[in-house]
Predict the structure.
Amino acid sequence: MANDFDVIVIGAGPAGYHSAIRSSQLGLNTAIVEKWLDSSGAAAYGGTCLNVGCIPSKTLLEASHKFVEARDEFGHIGIKLSKLSADIPAMMKRKDRVVSDLTAGVSSLLKTNKVEQYEGIAKVLGNGEVSIAMHNQEKAKLTAENIIIATGSVPIDIKPCPLTENLIVDSTGALEFDSVPKKIGVIGSGIIGLELGSVWSRLGSEVVLLEALEELLPVCDSQVSKEAAKEFKKQGMDIRLGARVTGSHIKRGKVEISYSRGDEDQREIFDKVIVAVGRRPYTNDLISPEAGVSLDERGFIAVNEYCMTDAPGVYAVGDVVRGPMLAHKGMEEGIMVAERIAGKLPQVDYDLVPSVVYTHPEIAWVGKNEEDLKAAGENYSVGVFPMRASGRAMANNDTSGIIKVIADKVTDRLLGVHIIAPHASEMIAEAVIAMEFKASAEDLALTMFAHPTLSEGLHEAALAVSGHAIHVANRKK
Ligand code: FAD
Ligand code: AMP
């Protein structure tokens, strides 16, 4: 008997909806199943990224940054303001509007691309069968030659600090406070903890980040993470490293957190606590044993480099599989799988996934850092440009950060680029393109960059690799 669809995608987050749209563009008869309901009970597309992740967090980061600029920086550049206040309900309303415009946009893109939409909870049964418990109470059973699982991830909760309505919240709750809490404890100083801590610190909260590890942002190049620690300290964020949270008590509408630091046990009272200790793949009641899809030891769906699971015709992409939990990584995997189903042969270059922390200054990197290279015993050269030497950064009244280029000592091929600077999220794309085309530091150095731009810092850092930077002293070889 013929299948109902060529492709069924489960989950309409960035990984799933990219996969579904590309499948349909390639002439495959495609369906997508999504279970998300918004606060009004309506179906919502776009997954974590659009509803409670990338987009709402960036909306609040931008709004709170503008507030800080107006409060602390406008005076320096000759703009006087007499009265300034943050209207949190208005900020939240705008954030919700950005989210609903985008989620509606994804739904209409799916429609335009003739992807059949099912709203409900899907389960992979095996033999190409997917059952759906639809939100309208109907049940459906569909078949497809190919199934793409894109069910994403959810926040991890920790036993010592169970979520408690409006007091101990996860990242989703932290995007919804209706006023500025006086004192916030953030557990975990990973990317999400730092971004959410920044939002509320800028809006006036006293923010304490409790981080179990001894190092801030250990995934970053350590020169960059040291710069970051300095900047966050200047901004007033109290980051306590080596602080492991061990318990919590609700006391008269506040939260008392216990944590150990070295040999000492400490306690501190907060108005709100944000638990930001990472995310886990979401596979609850998703796969029946007959489907033959296995999980790895950390609970991710096990896949090869082409996102194929152990079951023929079943693929998995995005946060539910290994690799960095980033929207763009899932999008590219989703597109790769759609194209491979259609007979094309693309690959995802997992060595060139850019990472960004949207704090101020932003932190972005791609490729290997100095610590990776040292550990691997590689020979490399480094060029660093401090943003305080950039004319454009001075004109912008924002000279924080550095740009660092690392190249192979012998071949000069770019191995990594690490940026902490305003607009690092945009500048890193230049490095990704260069590295994708296997450029050398000299290729970047021979490229003309418009003046005055922050990107000139990347040019100068590339020049500095061979000791030819114009605006700074070059590192001794
Ligand atoms: P998701 O976006 O989680 O989508 C999975 C979808 O599957 C969901 O809509 C879910 O409802 C649906 N689903 C699950 N199970 C079923 C089922 N059985 N049936 C039907 N539907 C199902 N990443 C970045 O790259 N940049 C950022 O700036 C960034 N900021 C972030 C900020 C925050 C606060 C958070 C929490 C995350 C952030 N991320 C960011 C991470 C990013 O959101 C994720 O990497 C991304 O959403 C993963 O995409 P996905 O499609 O794999 O999964
Ligand atoms: P990420 O996985 O990048 O989102 O970061 C989560 C951070 O939370 C990591 O740096 C962890 O070390 C940290 N973390 C996890 N559990 C605890 C805990 N009980 N107390 C403090 N920090 C924690």
Remarks:
- The two ends are 70 Å apart (CA to CA).
